[in-house]
Specification:
By secondary structure, this protein is an all-alpha fold. The chain has one domain. About 90% of the residues lie in helices and about 0% in strands. It is built from three helices and no strands. The longest helix has 25 residues.
Length: about 60
């Protein structure tokens, strides 16, 4: 189980910046657009944590 979690973390740590780099290059090397797109990842994380929190509260 630990190895699968470690592998998922490694993939996330390499795929996310790779996507941001690709978006930056396609936008004419505009780093602002790339970093703006990179904000999607933490927003998704916060949204998923909020959903899990609501699910936990509704079970009680």
């Amino acid at each position: 189980m630990f190895s699968l979690l470690a592998m998922a973390g490694d993939l996330g740590g390499s795929i996310g910046p790779g996507i941001v780099g690709r978006i930056t290059q396609n936008a004419g090397n505009n780093i602002k657009i790339g970093m703006g797109f990179g904000l999607i990842f933490p927003v998704i994380l916060l949204f998923m944590l909020f959903l899990l929190y609501r699910k936990k509260i509704s079970k009680h």
